[in-house]
Amino acid sequence: MTATNxxxxxxxRLSLFLGKRxxxxxxxxxxxVYLTIWIANMGGKVDEIRELQIRTSVxxxxxxxxxxxxxxPNERNQLIQERVxxxxxxxxxxxxxxxxxxxxxxxxxxxxxxxxxxxSSDAGSRQVYAIIGExxxxxxxxxxxxxxxxxxxxxxxxxxxxRRYGSRLDRTVIGLAPxxxxxxxxxxxxxxxxxxxxxxxxxxxxxxxxxxxxxxxAYALSVAKHMVLPVAAMVVSQIFIAxxxxxxxxxxxxxxxxxxxxxxxxxxxxxIERRYILRPTLLPIVTNFLLMLIGLWSGxxxxxxxxxxxxxxxxLFQAIGQRDTPVIIGGVVIFAYLLAVTVFLLDIxxxxxxxxxxxxxx
Length: 362
Prior knowledge:
2 domains, 75% helix
């Protein structure tokens, strides 16, 4: 019964902790999205431009309609005014922007993003969710692959370097660690120059060759070939600082008394690394990895532009260029949710790996 009560109390603390974190993330996302709505709409100026576009298009439609040629000018102007007013009311542009912004916020947070003003999906749909739905898998594929490679490669290399402290390889990694100050797109430019132009072995950009292969295996192979350079750019920009940081964690824990005691007992080195070194360092490693992931999400726009990768970053850049407010807001909302999910996963791992972060009375 005591064990059951303890479990219930721990689950209650965990639920309360996660509930507070979800609420805090929602508040943060809401504020960020609302500010984006004001900035993207320039405080209502974009809606005023939309009204002018509506008046122009309606007037042109009425004047080009042969059935309206015999109408007197006053009646024709009245017809134009009525249609313009109906369209403005349908879009809610007759209300003050402060009220419209609240409606925009509610629809954006629930992903009811409406229709794009100037952009469309590859299938021709003007719905924002369809446009974003086409681009989201490409971004997740690219960044997910790069981050998994960085994580497993860096952990393995860091463990190896912690056993060879002070070696030439160890000093080389330490010397290369500051190179991670440059973002992935910076290395991407040089990789494109070298491997797409000087030695043309890999495509310079895009996601698949044109025209796309009909065979599924050939299509997957083409996508993998196009992923090599952007993934390599992200890996190069993150790998050395990750190895250096995690190697430091392993070195600190490998000199602890309980590790020396395990070695004195004759335990296998790999068992010592897994049980006495890797496990205690798991929390800072996971933290460092997810923070690195957040940084990569932030740089998605420029990196995808450099490689012409058809993901959310490229979509957001195009939407800004075309002043397509619904798509801009939709892209920001999706990026905000991706960041929030990343932070929330970090909170869950923290609460599981270290019960002290849950707080509350013992």
